[in-house]
Amino acid sequence: MLGPELVQETTDKIFKIRDRIKADRDRQKSYADRHRKPLSFEVGDKVLLKVSPWNGVARFGKQGKLSPRYIGPYEILEKIGNVACKLKLPETLSSVHDTFHVSNSKKCLSDESLIIPPDEIRVDDKLDFIEEPVEVLD
After folding, report:
1. Cβ contact 83:102 at 8 Å
2. If you placed Cys at 73, which of 10, 12, 25, 46 could pair as Cys (CB 3.0 to 4.6 Å)?
3. pTM recorded for the entire structure
4. Phi and psi (nearest 5°) for 127?
């Protein structure tokens, strides 16, 4: 093979390689998109905040397997662009910055009256929940 034939064959192979790479990239993107979910929050929504990236910063009262994955719910005060939200945090978290990426939050769908603060949950040495009566009826 001489000059023009060699160049033509090489460019054909390059186009084939590009097409195969594009097909593979599209296939992998479709696999990844199945696991993605659109995250959009509005001002006033309640969200749970992911704790796992903060392992060295704050322990939230529990360690190891019993440490919570999400804490909250907290109210969104302000949206900063499409990917960040400013949250209304309690005084106990005053050392933590109040702006978070939306990937670190999860929409809180539960009824707020049913939420038990972690301070009220007491567990004994055998990890049994300690219950106390609220009032005696009879």
Report:
1. yes
2. 46
3. 0.54
4. 65, 35
